[in-house]
Write a structure and sequence with these properties.
Elements: H1 13-16, E1 37-38, E2 41-47, E3 51-56, E4 62-72, E5 86-96, H2 98-129
Antiparallel strand pairs: 1-2, 2-3, 3-4, 4-5
Length: 130
């Protein structure tokens, strides 16, 4: 079963280095912990291998949260000859600030289907290759 937060995301020295105005690097290059930076996100909840919650640190007219949860598939048979499957749920939440936040959300809404589907496809490919 893939692990959420266990070895999610490799550290990128070019992105995670310390510079004026930038955040500090992650504590561990291959494992996430509460408060760690991951690209433009901050880990706000983690329960490996079941749940990972991220808060956007981008400048947005609102608060964006991206959460992943993983669980065994309800169709799994314990003695099945093939490896068990899992269900990955990706939840995006946005709490807009004022009319600018609402306008932003509806303006980018059509793009989210492509972005989030691509993200899930990448996670699936990585998990199947492991």
């Amino acid at each position: 079963m893939p692990v959420l937060g266990g070895d999610a995301g490799q550290a990128d020295p070019a992105r995670d280095h310390v510079a004026p105005g930038l955040r500090r690097p992650r504590r561990h290059p291959e494992q996430l912990a509460y408060g760690d930076a991951l690209d433009f996100w901050r880990v706000t909840g983690i329960d490996p291998p079941h749940r990972l919650a991220l808060l956007a640190e981008m400048i947005l007219p609102g608060d964006a949260v991206l959460e992943f949860s993983i669980s065994p598939s309800a169709n799994d048979v314990p003695c099945a000859p093939v490896s068990p499957s899992t269900v990955l749920v990706q939840t995006a939440r946005f709490k807009p600030r004022g009319l600018a936040g609402l306008a932003y959300w509806y303006a980018v809404l059509p793009l989210h289907g492509y972005v989030f589907r691509g993200m899930l496809d990448g996670i699936r490919r990585e998990a199947e290759g492991a």
